[in-house]
Design brief:
alpha/beta; 13 helices; eleven-stranded mixed beta sheet; homodimer
């Protein structure tokens, strides 16, 4: 398996991408290709590991040299069209031409979604690809949220397709037999919510069997982290609000907890024995272990890492990438969507 | 000042309402009227305090006897229309006839909003009243979120009015000079978001001066708890998602933190010295100290307490009620809206 990594994408690139790749390399069976400016990468390697030949540091990591890079301020469509030798565009092209099995980038999100849609293309029958982000939860594998921000305005059919894709991804990546899929809503009753959720509830209920979705109904944000649901579908605006709330409350908790613990010296000292417990909690709630977010609905596997990803996030994302490819979710999605199209066409003919 | 309290509303009523009132009574300068079934209240008083005469327990608490109560399952409009001697309907009537200065209830939310709108009435010029909920934040007084769930589908004009009402409430209740009002969105740039937030941004920016709003632009949920914003406006669906996310993550943190701390006996013992720090954090993050949520946009002050409110929430809500009335926010809102109507009418004539 070959994992393509945009070495230049993200706030902490290329330091974090390089370190993450070198850390993950001995633990995975794949080859990692760092896509980016070779001279910069070599300089960094020298700085971090004392030698600039990547073969000597990790034999399953290679470099693909590129000369440009897409910046956070770039206009997505313009950048994808004109920066032809950027690490991101080259990554997509390699992915398309099957020179790699999956592409990971923490670069400009808009450009990544645009690039995936334009250069890789949507799965036939999928109206809108979406971001499937993992959130911490009491569930074994966390909670998959889709769409976490790609489509700010959605129709009920989009949510039905998100539910189908999320099911296939969760099943094939984490081995959960019939993933429980909920509709993110502000009440549990069928009649609750805004126009979109009311309509989506109906369409999800009616089509659950046909689409092979284990639809468990409306789920409120106050109950979604308790491990009773595996996948949560919603429009990208609401999903992004939920995702960023988790982040925001995380920041608040971290600050408040640290403030409380370090308020005075005496208390700091007395707190030391409990630090392992608190660290364990922090680890459990740490979003970094969940890695990147797959962009589902395009023809090849793409993982979007958070712009602020550090070394550890890239490490986890590389491991996750291997699982994603092994699960073969994209082929299974393509097949499932095709089957539904056939049934629908047959019904139309009859 | 007279505070009207629906003694029968909420999952823990009347135990929690009675205990909250008796706890708050010596600390406030107002009279509290417990509205509900007198025989039940007296029985509870006997059980909790050994005597059934409320005058002997707290001289500033009185009982207003009612015979019915609105249940959580009742259809709001039907209940408000037909249960004329329910604690909620009687509370609204007393509020309207100025037999009290503010009404608090943790009963059926739909009935409470319907009752406030039908029996008390909207402020002239306000299209949609909304719920203004307090969230924990690093700010001195927390963060006011409006609308937290009353209106699932909103127009930009509603958000402008929420911003105006939230400003007036925060200023008059907490003494913050020019409350910073943000628009809840999934990006900070003007062009980010869904159709509603894009339009709302424009209308807020254009009208900020006229409406006397210190509009600070888009705020993402990941930055809203850091104390850099005093009031956050959005549609009621999004607001309810944010509100319930805070609740959900709170549950998750509580469970995970407790699990981590009590994983084994040794660790539990070693954790004891740090418990004061953790308790301090828990207190800071405890939503209960923020009391109830004012329903702003109706002609008289109404506070909605969470259905699951306990004794402590009612205690804090009663104290908050006093501040709300003292701040005179409702009269100031009415005046401010009237002024804008006059300006607009004048402009139309010209």
């Amino acid at each position: 398996m070959i994992i393509l990594l945009d070495a230049m994408g993200g706030d902490n690139a290329p330091d974090a991408t390089i370190k993450g790749a070198i850390k993950a390399a001995p633990e995975i069976n794949s080859e990692i290709i760092l896509i980016g400016d070779e001279s910069i990468i070599r300089k960094k390697l020298k700085e971090f590991y004392g030698k600039d030949s990547i073969e000597e540091i990790a034999k399953n990591v290679k470099i693909k040299h590129t000369t440009e890079q897409i910046e956070m301020e770039d206009i997505p469509t313009v950048a994808i069209k004109h920066k032809k030798d950027s690490s991101m565009v080259v990554g997509f092209k390699m992915l398309k031409e099957e020179e790699g099995d999956i592409f990971i980038s923490a670069g400009n999100s808009g450009a990544l979604l645009t690039g995936a849609t334009l250069l890789i293309g949507r799965i036939k029958g999928i109206d809108r690809p979406g971001i499937a982000a993992m959130l911490p939860s009491e569930g074994i594998k966390g909670l998959l949220l889709m769409d976490a921000g790609a489509n700010t305005n959605c129709k009920p059919i989009n949510l039905l397709q998100f539910a189908q894709m999320a099911s296939i991804y969760i099943h094939n990546t984490f081995g959960i037999e019939k993933p429980r899929i909920g509709l993110l809503n502000i009440g549990t009753e069928e009649t609750k919510g805004n126009d979109l959720t009311k309509e989506s509830y109906k369409i999800l209920k009616e089509n659950a069997e046909k689409y092979n979705i284990n639809f468990i109904g409306n789920i409120e944000p106050r109950d979604c982290f308790l491990g009773e649901v595996d996948g949560l579908v919603c429009d990208g605006f609401t999903g992004n609000v939920l995702l960023k709330s988790v982040e925001g409350i995380g920041k608040f908790v971290k600050k408040s907890l640290t403030d409380s613990l370090t308020k005075n010296v005496l208390r700091t000292i007395s707190a030391v024995p409990s630090l392992p417990a608190i660290n364990e909690f922090k680890k459990k709630a740490d979003h970094r272990i969940y890695g990147g977010a797959p962009f589902l609905g395009v023809k090849r596997p793409v993982l979007k890492a958070h712009g602020s990803s550090d070394e550890l996030v890239f490490y986890y994302t590389l491991k996750q990438a291997e699982q994603f490819v092994k699960g073969n979710s994209v082929a299974k999605m393509t097949e499932a969507v095709e089957k539904i199209r056939e049934v629908e066409e047959k019904n139309e003919v009859l």
